[in-house]
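This part of the workshop introduces the protein records we will be handling. A record pairs a protein's sequence with a compact description of its fold. Comparing a sequence with its tokens is the quickest way to learn the format. To make this concrete, we reproduce a full record directly below:
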Amino acid sequence: MNEDFLHYIWKYRLFESKKLVTTSGEYLEIIKPGEHNTDGGPDFHNARIKIDKTLWAGNIEIHINASDWLKHGHQNDNAYDNIILHVVHSNDIEIKRKNKEIIPTLELKELIPLNVFRRYKNMMNSKQWIPCQKLIKQAESIVINSWLERILIEKLENKTEFIIRLLEQTKNNWEQSFYICLARNFGFKLNAEAFELLARSTPLSVIGKHKNSLFQIESIYFGQAGLLNNSPKEEYATSLLHEFKLLKQKFGLSPIPAHIWKFLRLQPSGFPTLRIAQFSSLMHKTSHLFSKILETTKINELENLFQCSCSEYWDTHYVFGKESPKRLKNMGKTAIENIIINTVVPFLFIYGEHTKEEKYKDRAIRFLEQLDGEKNAITTQWRLMEMPVKTAANTQALIELKNNYCNKKKCLNCALGSHLLNRAK
């Protein structure tokens, strides 16, 4: 038993509510349980109850044991002196106001349905992939779909902090902020930090001055990445290094340490050298990328913005100095969709919030609805449980659900968990 569960029971009235009486024997009618307060102060605000023939409006406080009132020091806090009802699991002590009046108390111990508590306990003790794994097929599709829609918005809103911090650092420069976030995305998980440092150390304005030359852009990025100084003595790498030395002096550039780049446990297609070559190609191909994204309304046009080919050298290389069979190293469909899902969509959504233009937020969600669902360890498990995984909107919401609700066993805050508990009553 814990207070979160009692809050849930009270909020949804999942207890025997006929002929309620206080511990003093007074008739009690619950008209409105109140609004759940997750900040400091009483647990529920603006409740309305009727004790005998008197109507009361005010705050409710909930505890496992009545004596917790004293343990929490409420007797010394004026905010609790006007509580209209004390709701407890066990009334082990009589609680009074400062003027010695007894605070009306409702004991829930014998009123909570055994099935509801047993189901909640089973969820909390579950060792399965998600707490409600044995029950989730009982959930109604309308509940699942509406909750996933809400979770998707929550996931996008959770990315606000990082992007807002970027905007503060760039003095509200959306292009520069998008550039840094995009670079981070190119590093995926393993090299995200390194790519972010690369973008921060290489101003977009510098790239803009040489955007007509892919060779010069590559020399800047590979030089800034620290990957040219110790590269094999071959013609292409040597040429890049020579060019970088000139541009480094011209713009006062400072390379980042080469040792931060990670190659181990990566497929060659994910090597940072190849990702930097692809990023260079994208910067060469386009300018004012975020402005173009804001003007793009069709998913195929958005995908085309990120279609790019590496320079000829990389057709036969994954790293400097080591030839490989010839193969075009274009940005693949999966990589482009990853960028749209993890960078483009959050930026569009937050831009819509920032400018108060709902069309950008709607477009962000629509793009997710038009992309196929992601395939990874989390979505595979959801698929096995017959949850909707058709679109990226579905899978993004399900990833958020798993990471921020199921893993933390926040079943009482989850619409699916609440729905399944309610069915047990």
